[in-house]
Every structure is written in C-alpha cells, then in structure tokens.
Amino acid sequence: MDDSDVPVLIVGAGPTGLALACDLARRGVGCRIVDRAPVFPSGSRGKSVQPRTLEVLDDLGVLDEVRAYGGPVLPYRAYDRDRVLGVWPSARQRAATAQVPYPNVLMVAQERVEDALRKRLARHGVRVRFGTELLTFAADDEGVTATLADRSTVEQVRARYLVAADGGRSVVRKQLEIPFEGVTYDSQHITVADVEADGLDRAHCHVWPRAAEGTIALYPLPAGRSFQLTADGDLGDRADSLRDAFAQRTDSMGIRLREVSWMSTYRVVIRAAQRFRAGRVFLAGDAAHVYPPAGGQGMNAGIQDAYNLGWKLARVLAGAPSSLLDTYEAERVPIAARTLETVSELYHRSLLGDPKGRTDPPDSGQLAVSYRGGPLALDHRGRASGLRAGDRAPDAPCHDRRGKAVRLFDVFRGPQTTVLAFGSRYAQSGTAADELHADSAAVRVVVRPGDSAPGTAIVDTHGHAHRAYDITADTVVAVRPDGHIGMICEHAALADVYRHLEALGCGDAGSGCAEPGPRP
Fold this sequence. Notes:
Blueprint: E1 2-11, H1 15-26, E2 31-35, E3 48-49, H2 51-60, H3 63-68, E4 71-72, E5 76-80, E6 83-88, E7 106-107, H4 110-123, E8 129-130, E9 133-139, E10 144-149, E11 154-164, H5 171-176, E12 180-198, E13 205-208, E14 216-220, E15 226-232, H6 239-250, E16 256-273, E17 277-278, E18 281-283, E19 289-290, H7 298-317, H8 326-351, E20 378-380, E21 397-400, E22 405-407, H9 408-412, E23 418-422, H10 424-427, H11 431-435, E24 442-447, E25 458-459, H12 464-468, E26 475-479, E27 485-490, H13 494-503
C-alpha cells in the first residue's frame, strides 16, 4: 500500500472536476483527479454552454478550442407525424455588447468541453487517473484519508481537502449521509443518442411533441454530421429499438437513422443536497444537484460550482482563514435551489407537449446569478439601484496608457483579486498604489481620456467601464477571482477596503492575490 499526500483530491473527471482541477493547477495548487470510468466518456450528453460558462472557459484558457466545435442555438421545427406545426426560436439571439461579450448559448457536445479541459489540465502537468475508484474515506480536523483502487492496486491518499464531483449517485455524498432532497420520477425516462440521419436539414432542431408514445427530437450537432436524438421513455440499449421508436413516432417521413454511435437512458431526477460541505469534504456538480435535461443547466451549474470553490481552496491552503470556505455553501446552495425551480418548470412544460417548453428562460444564461447580500458582498453606496456587490463583474473595452486595446476581462484574468479604482482621487500618479497597496490585490486605476494617471492605469476611452459600473463618484470596486464583485465602496474608507480584502483571503496571509496572472 502506497501512502501519498496531496492538497486536494478530486473524485470525478466530468466537466465539474476538470474545471476545478484546471483552476487549482493554474494557481499552483497540487491536486489529484480520479474517475472510476476506465476511459474518458464519449457521447454528446449536455450540449448547451451558457454565456456565463463561456466567460469561465475564457478565463481558464479553453474558450477558443470549445468554440471551434460549437455553433449557435437553432430554431425548433415542430411536427405532428409528417405535418409541420410551425417553427419556434429556441432562444432569442442577442448581439454582443461592451459589457457582455458572449451573450448567447453555444451548442457544443459535452465531450468537446471535457476534451478541451483535459488538454488544458495536461499542459499544467496534471492527468486524470481513469479506472480509479474511491472505496472509502475518513475525514478528521486536519484532512481526509481516502482509499483508492484501480485494477491492480489499492492506495491510501492523504489530502487536505476532498471534492466530490462524482455525479448524481455520488459515493461521497452517500457515505456522508447528506440528504438528497427532491423527487425522482421512476416511471419517467429520457433516452439520448448520437445518430446520423438522412432526410433532414441541419438548420433546425426537429421535434415531434405530440406523438402518443412521447416526444422525440433530433438536434444537429455542430462540427460534424451527427444529430443528438432525445426521446421520452426508455428505448433500451439497441440501435434497432431506437430506429423502430423513431419510425413509429414520426411516420418515418423519409428520414432514415443510420449510424448510432452512442446512446444512454436516464431517469428524470430533480434533487439537491441539503448541504454542500461536511468539514473538509465538498460536493460539486451533479453530486450536489441534479436537474432534468430541459434548460441545459447541469454542466453549466457544475462548472460554476468549481469556479466558486477553486479560488477559495487556493486562498485557504495559502493561509487565509478557513471560514472563507464556509462561503461556498452559503453562496451556491441558494443558486442551486433557484435553478431547480426554473428547470422543473421547463421540464413540466415540455411534458405537456409544448415545444416552447424547450426554450430557455430569460435568466438561464446565468449572467444574472448574484451573491448579493452574501457573506462576501460589501456594498457602501448611497443608492440601492444599479450594479451591486455580489453581481457578475461586467466586461468593458478600454486601452492602456500606450493605446493598446485591453478588456476588463483581460485585467481580471488569472488567479488574483482585482481592485478597480475610479475617480480623480486615484488618478494622481502613485495614489492608488500607495493607499490601496499593497500585496493584497492587483490595483488598477481607471481614468477617462485626458486624465493624468500612473503608467499602469486603464483608459476608459469610450466611457464603457464607468457606465457598466455605474460610477458617479470616486469608487473602489474589488472583483473576486471568480468574476463577481466583492465590494463597491464610494468615497472609500481604506479600513473598509482592507477589511474586505482580508475577507477575500488577501493580505499578508493570502497568496495568489498580489500579481495579475498571465493568460493561462
């Protein structure tokens, strides 16, 4: 038996576990990631990447690769057997703005997202150990001892923290006996498959919502010839049964299903864990919450869990107070509860045969997800409207002092907390660096054209940043490593700034706060 130590052990190498491992690795935090599957999974599975998740993938350095295999959301064409009922937009396409560079859902197979994250993780020197199962674990005040097994060996691993990203049937959650509250529809199943089909255009998602046997749909997958087939009911595990069900529900219409490269059947489950943390063990992704397919929230919510947790683990491992980790549960549990309500409504609408029940709700892009009123949100403004602490930090196109274009997202990129200092008080050379210094965060002064400022200042050439952040007075904004606003203070008292940066794990105790990180 081989003993080894690691700061963080991640169980499960789906999108949640991979995103967390990438985030930790770029912060210099050692981690081990294992998965019981013998090889990485194939199949499209989840295929909707929401706008906020695109921003996370941008920060992690994999967006370009993911977008290369993706495409826009297509309208739905609904049929009753061979009769066309109509065409419905599945989601309103929005133009990119200064504040929101990725306003639309990207349709891309989940396997493509996972592949991009695995490659990024390998460039950080970390590889997934497939075929490795967590048998048991025991946690104490100092860490977690986990027993792992592959085909030939059993190994004990000592970790400071364990993160369970091992899916809806999480071994970790079950061993912790954390209630998984909600409902499982034992009689309701959904079959998903990747197929090639003749006789259908690739400009629409084709859906038969009124078939007596249940809804069936074919969605063209970008970057290839395949369609994702989704169908109500358990259609077995044979390609012939899938073809028979499709012919029966559609009257064939001259459509022929050819190669079936992957298929799986899922029970409809709508549940969330009562707690996301038990001491040094955390739940994330499907281990913490399971949604029905409608709305495409599962993969996206899991990546957001990882993005919220990663920087907090890194800060605490570097010496920040462990209470910072309490905020993971405090912030993510309410989000999971609200998401469950939203996707449950969508799912029940789709059960009624309403093709519009397959469209996304207005907030499904997760851009409106906010931690307002949470333990890390400090708001010192004289008004209650506009951007608030806890909200997503908007992007804005600016320039540096040499005239080179720079986005605020470029400034935020990496593992650090970023402090934006707006106003004449900070526009004088050296003032912001002297007053807000320090080793606590990367401080950038934001000035209007023509204002005097230090060489590291950002010039808000067209006023986009001032408008996005609703600046009407000298203001300090602290942006967390996960792109949410931690603090907004007008006429900032430095004591408030320092106190909040300490709460974010910055200062003498926290590392990874001082210098902006390079693009990963």
